Amino acid sequence: MSSIAVPDHESAAVTLEGKRSLLKLARRMMDNFCAGVSASSAREWSKLDGLTGSIGADVRVMVRKSVDEPGVPPGVVLSAATSVWIPVTSERLFNFLRNEGLRAEWDILSNGGPMQQMIRIAKGQMDGNSVSLLRATPTSTNQNSMLILQETCTDESGAMVVYAPVDIPAMQLVMGGGDSTYVALLPSGFAILPDGPSMGGKTTGSLLTVAFQILVNSQPTAKLTAESVDTVNNLIACTIKKIMVALHCDV
């Protein structure tokens, strides 16, 4: 790891061209996330059975094949999404999900420890609007060859936390101001909507949408297997349960 030139602290020196390239990549990540969770007449959601009883929500899945798409890994991509009501304010939920120090409480990509914020680029005046580059704490079995690109945004209408694993050589290129067009991204994340203004001073809840995009096979001609569906099914249920436990909600 010592031979890899990755910044070791927040606000590390990145050229103006590097920041522009990073912001451009983050914009594509957000666009891909929104497109990946949007249905159409050609790509429709299918309902997954078996989760309603465990998290009180339906999980929907959608499959697409990626072939020669710049910036998207080739193969079979499975999208899964669900929405669930959580009895905490949208501000508290947003601040929890964007906190890299608490990420291990819900994210398997964290290696079970807090993530380090390598770079943070503010977008606008609000504290919650930024693009950041995160790195998981290395373990003996994982020497941390991966980073997390994340964008967070919030306003009065709601908030989003969107992220994607990216490899270190690709981010070296981007931080040096290189072209980010061909950096492969498969973003996942959260959309948070407040459930309305508080009534009589009572705390309101939030509607949390969780969406994952996973490459289940690197061959575009491969068939989707039941094991792949079970894997993403379990991942989305486990993530929601962990969030609820961390925020002291009844599961």
Q: State the share of residues found in helices, binned by percent.
A: 25-40%
CATH class: Alpha Beta
Encode the helix/strand succession as letters: HEHEEHEEEEHEEH
* CATH superfamily placement: START domain
How many H/I helices? Answer: 5
- The overall number of domains is 1
Q: Outline, from the CA principal axes? A: globular
Organism: Eleusine coracana subsp. coracana
Pfam families: PDF2_C
Protein name: HD-Zip IV C-terminal domain-containing protein
What do you see in this structure?
The structure is a single chain. With 251 residues, the chain is of the alpha+beta class. It has one domain: Alpha-D-Glucose-1,6-Bisphosphate, Chain A, domain 4, CATH 3.30.530.20. The chain is built from five helices and nine strands; from the N terminus they run αβαββαββββαββα. Strands 1-2-3-9-8-7-6-5-4 form a nine-stranded antiparallel beta sheet, sandwiched between helices. InterPro entries: HD-Zip_IV (IPR042160), HD-Zip_IV_C (IPR057993). This is HD-Zip IV C-terminal domain-containing protein. It holds the Pfam family PDF2_C. It comes from Eleusine coracana subsp. coracana.
Condensed summary:
The protein is α+β, with helices and mostly antiparallel strands.
